[in-house]
Give the backbone structure.
Amino acid sequence: MRTALLSTAFAAIALSAPGSASAEVSKADVLANYSNIAAAKYGDSVATAKLLQAAVDALIANPSAETLQAAKAAWLVSRVPYQQTEVYRFGNAIVDDWEGKVNAWPLDEGLIDYVDASYGGPTDDNEFAVLNVIANPNFNLSGNEIDASEITPDLLADTLHEADGIEANVATGYHAIEFLLWGQDLNGHGTGAGNRPWTDYAQGADCTNGNCDRRAAYLKAATDLLVSDLEWMAAQWAEGGDARGALSANEDAGVVAILTGMGSLSYGETAGERMRLGLMLNDPEEEHSCFADNTHNDHYYDGLGVQNVYLGQYVGADGTLVSGPSLSDLVIQADPALDAEMKLKLANTMLALGRIKTAAEAGFAYDQMLERGNAAGEALVMGGVAGLVDQTKGIERVVSALGLDQLEIEGSDSLDNPDAVFQ
């Protein structure tokens, strides 16, 4: 798997090597291809989410160790195309305003279901941290009595998600589903992911931890909602969609939006909040996919998404290559040396993220890498951070080379003001 993935990355570099553009490429061309790739990525996200939906339906209809494992496998597959869409955040307001519905983290999972006693109880920051809606068909929320006897997508999206304005009250999306499939990871810095028993979905006397019917209803509602949310976003990037139209309304602003997404995902979000911060805190709870121990893949495919955008190409879930005029082509026309430098920086980042992925798949889990004093883990994580930070510097140079307005790239205290992390 590693060889195939890295070969794809390097093949992409070769396909967009300097001199590959045979004719002058316009910003309009680049924006159109960027939108086509977005449509393909969100389309693949819908398709794989529907496979997850089918696996969840099978688990609910016939709970067993096998159907639970199949649902977990489908969830992991669904993350591959979705993580490659995260580069469309930050610069595209329509994506950023929506993204919290499907990929919000970290979450106070006690809002959803039972948790271990070590999790604690309500906090000053979140009185609903252990609400456990699965066990409570009626509860008070912000002074209102809520009837949750029927768990529906509307209940999750309109009532529970970010309840009381608290971001940690994540009731929807990939990570809520992840928790319902894996359960809490109670291994700390040890090996192993969450280990929810399949009997949490069994009916009758075989049910463990109570409320198996409501747990199944929650999982079903969350998965159906994920599919519908992804379908909505895919439509925004289709021909005539609002996201496509907003991007193309002003060509310079559109290219700035593309570069803003690349820079902010590389720097503040992935290098900072998702990687450097977790290493500083030595906290396995700072993993992006902490229940499934899939964080190494989250980082890898985020990095690949950034590289996709620069090279103007994406290998779809079925192996189809979507490609066209790219940022790389624009930079070649302005500064061929900078284009070669950018491709090298992106390739170096993918090598660093690939090392993390390979190590994790060989048994050195990401939460082990975060443990204080683990020099090998720190070196791997910081290798990824360094690559992402370095490619951000290249992205900023691209802005100047193309004569565009300066970017507003998201930062992170972990990178910009480390002392503030511990205040």
